[in-house]
Amino acid sequence: MGVITGLLALPLAPVRGVVWVAEQLQDAAERELNDPLVLRAQLAALNQGFEDGLLGEEEFEQDEERLLDRLHESVARAERSKVTCS
Question: Which residues, in sequence order, are CB contacts of 49 under 8 Å at separation 6+?
């Protein structure tokens, strides 16, 4: 990057910094949302809530299906990632 280009781009530096922080936060949130351990813990809590009578059968089945879909996608993504990296 030349001196003139660097000087002209300088006012945009804070914007680029904010964008970078936002991207890092989004990546961290996606990792946490798709973490198999977190999803399994949510499934366990869902099952406990159903057994304790806090959830109806229909609500339980819908939430369980949603969590299982996310878990299967997370595991499949991890498998694809392993194959790609090998």
Answer: 55, 60
